[in-house]
Amino acid sequence: MKEVFNLYNTLTRQVEPIRPLQADRLTVYTCGPTVYGDAHIGNFRTFIYEDTLVKALRYFGYRVKWVMNITDVGHLTSDRDEGEDKLEVGARREGTTAWAVAKKYEQSFLADSAALRMAKPDRLVRATDCIEQQITLVQELEAKGYTYCISDGIYFDTSKFPTYGQMARLDIAGLQAGARVAMQEEKKHPTDFALWKFSPTDRTRDMEWSSPWGTGFPGWHLECSAIAMSTLGKQIDIHCGGTDHIPVHHTNEIAQSEAATGKQFARHWMHTDHLLVNGGKMSKSLGNLYTLADVTARGFDPLALRLLYYGASYRSKQNFTWHSLETNQKLLDRLRQQAAELPETGEDTGNAAAPLAAFRAALANDLNMPAAVAALIETMKSPLDPAAKRAFVTEVERVLSLGLLQEPEKATAIPDKIRQLAAAREERRREGKWDEADAIRRNIEAAGYELRDAVGGGKSQIRKKAQSK
Ligand code: AMP
Ligand code: ZN
Fold it and tell me: Which residue ranges have their beta carbon within 6 Å of ligand 1?
């Protein structure tokens, strides 16, 4: 018997113990990034919490199989199947193909994930690599009478699935009344969603496939059901994503999976609430849609961002400010410094047991990361013997992944003033004020720091210049 691990379940709106379908094993599916641009620090809040969940479950002894998809086709600019494919928007923006955009941003997602010390999912599956499974799923739904065809595609008839919208507690009647105006007019019900979309007749899409219904591409929700069920089985233990996915994407995943199999799709749903910036929604138009490149361009360690995420429960919104990142960078530097002072070898005194119990209790209490980090901070400043402290840090790092045992970057810590200059220079570059940006660069260099511009025009990194004798 494993220790109980409690996690809030959006299905029941309660904190519940995780009960694996198969003893000791857990299957976890997480909705991955839509690779039409760099993932922002809000997306990474959700991804880091998912990574931390998987690490915590493994730490508790479960054999976890973790699958994540890469959305590289079919996600339209509106989650409700309207608008343009986001990958096509990206292709137009960059004057290239949807395929090239997908490749570029998949790579950048993987690089950012590695910098944030995310574990690699056991399977990372692109939507475009499992078109066949998606077509098969539509055929199953068609055979069972859940689909209908209109001019732009094959749709799922949500009125045929009696428990539609249950997890999200959707007010179906209200939606019926309110949404008529904006909806695709041939759709039978506002909540019906596309399973397969037809290609336009006047041009060829970069990404399209032939199917029993004609040339086209899969609807966005379909990929997650098809990938989850083909890699993990008809029923999975835990399905994760951001809270924005509850009313549409996950509601539709449940409908199409359960209609096809007649079984409950996921037993436990974990949703991470949103990261806000300066108290509001992040958006390109407000200029506050930050990526990991923005974080490193200002001289912060990606793992300071990871530590920042731990500062609030995944179930509440979290507000990001550059000031809070700075506070977390300082905390990280201090923890690393404390860890560096511990002896590398020493007799295991067994005294780490009590603080480790506190750490485990925090994890098992609905992944309470603020409490887990508090256990770390308390232990580091407690009178516990150094060997036990080191044993403690080594253990908690399996979950926290903060690089606590790496060399503290005393020599490379970037002063606030230099970070502010680098941020100002990024602004100028964004505005195309190259002369001003160059002047700031010279100031940064005169202060003993250098900027390394990233290949491909990304954000630059600040480093301390090597000491010259
Ligand atoms: P996307 O790339 O848009 O498919 O989103 C990737 C993940 O990030 C999904 O699980 C979203 O629910 C989640 N997400 C989107 N915006 C935010 C945000 N501001 N804060 C936290 N998670 C988010
Ligand atoms: Zn999904």
Answer: 31, 33-34, 42-43, 45-46, 71, 241-242, 244-245, 272, 274-275, 282
* First-to-last C-alpha distance (Å) of the chain: 62
Rg, Å, the chain Cα set: 24
Residue 469 above 50 pLDDT? no
Q: Are 8 and 17 in contact (CB under 8 A)?
A: no
Domain with CATH 3.40.50.620 in the chain: 6-272
Q: Quick one: which of 196, 80, 83 has its CA closest to 131?
A: 196
Cα gap 261→253, rounded to integer Å: 12
The CA 236 to ligand 1 mean position distance, Å, reads: 21
Q: What 3-state class would DSSP assign to 115? A: helix
For the CA of 46, the nearest ligand: 1
**Domain 6-272 in CATH: superfamily?**
HUPs (3.40.50.620)
In the chain, residues under CATH classification 1.10.730 are: 277-409
Confidence at residue 459, expressed as pLDDT on a 0 to 100 scale: 62
- Which among 28, 43, 252 is the best mutation to test ligand 1's pocket, defined by most ligand atoms within 8 Å of the CB? 43
- Position 156, amino acid: F
Ligand nearest to the CA of 41: 1
CA distance 161 to 12: 19
pLDDT at 124 over 80: yes
Question: What's the pLDDT at 343?
Answer: 85
Whole-number Å distance, alpha carbon 252 to ligand 2 midpoint, is 9
Q: Which residue type, as a one-letter code, is found at position 78?
A: S
